[in-house]
Design goal:
ATPase-coupled intramembrane lipid transporter activity, P_typ_ATPase_c, metal ion binding, mainly alpha, P-type ATPase C-terminal domain-containing protein, magnesium, single chain, 99 residues
Amino acid sequence: GAQAVMHSDYSISQFRFLEHLLLVHGRWTFQRISLLILHSFFRNVGWTLANFFLVFDNAYSGRQFWDDTFAGQWTSFFTAVATYAVCITDKDFVYQNTL
């Protein structure tokens, strides 16, 4: 048992803590990861649709809607910071009301 604990990512001291770990923290982790995926899809769809509708306006010339500086900062700063801030702090219920 002791060697398995030393090689694991985390360990719990008593078996009764496993229910709380799986049901509460597992639910929060699932909610946060699914919200992160939805935000990632949303920001990529928004970027693509803006460029798609610009094609009709500029007569299919291939011109981009944003300059390269803004395009480089779009994923790394403008959308990723907001997405991670929401995903880290989001909880669908209060810790004291669990189980």
